[in-house]
Amino acid sequence: MPILKFENVSKTYPGNFIALEEINLVIESGEFLSIVGHSGSGKSTLLKLIYAEEQASEGHVYFNDRAIDSINRKHLPYYRRNIGTVFQDFKLLPQKTAFENVAYALEVSDETEEEINELVPEILEIVGMNDKAKKYPRQLSGGEQQKICLARALVRKPMVIIADEPTGNLDPVATWEIIQLLLKINSMGTTIILATHNKDIVDKLNRRVIALDKGKVIRDHQKGRYAI
Ligand code: ADP
Ligand code: MG
Question: How confident is the model over 80-97, as a mean pLDDT?
Fold first, then answer.
């Protein structure tokens, strides 16, 4: 069953700017999908529609067969628990340790202290950051901070992770570490949707690639390469 489906989706921003045009897209549960395209081609907008941060102007986006735009505002936080997010700028809380940053994602969803103390180390282990649990973001490298962001996204056990240029601020070694982690998380069952400019990554991944150009899907290849 598709986990996400775009049906004739267009997105027009104020001023009549068309960011996405008639997108039809089916994403199966468990896929690792890369979205490529020049700056301004609509990659972030597509991810924002999934996270319900923006709404389609036409058409519908379905999550597990439910139209996202039909979800009551009050229920959006519950819906969003299905979707973990990772961005280019890490957005960690500077006054909290790595552990606390990850734990914070749980505290806002009323988990008990016991559950938090069990879950957080488990997730930090997955991203290989248990030994840095007590460090503050400023004491961590960019790659390490991004691993904490991944842990923070993972800790609520989302079905999908959307990663918007997650390696945009990282050197090649850290970039590849983050991609390896995304692959590992994918192999554990989480659907991954990665928007990236990085040709190297996409070519090495050899997974499904969608290319956007001026808001349209111009290519959708199962074992794609970057070339746009
Ligand atoms: P990408 O992530 O591929 O760089 P975006 O989805 O961010 O592309 O943007 C697609 C187009 O929509 C761009 O031309 C951008 O300027 C425009 N856009 C994005 N967000 C807004 C907004 N909130 N208001 C108006 N235009 C926007
Ligand atoms: Mg973008």
Answer: 96
45 CA to centre of ligand 1 in angstroms: 6
Residue 17 beta carbon below 6 angstroms from any ligand 1 atom: yes
pLDDT at 80 over 60: yes
**Both structure tokens of 135:** 């460090």
Phi-psi region of 55 (alpha: psi -120 to 50; beta: other; left: phi over 0): beta
Ligand 1 atom 26: the closest Cα is on which residue?
A: 13
Q: Please work out whether the CB of residue 36 comes within 6 Å of at least one atom of ligand 1.
A: no
- pTM exceeding 0.70: yes
Calculate the CA 78 to chain-centre distance: 17
Evaluate whether 104 touches 120 at the Cβ level (below 8 Å). no
User: Which of 223, 162, 225, 218 lies closest to 24, judged by CA?
Assistant: 218
Q: How far is the CA of 18 from the centre of ligand 1 (A)?
A: 9
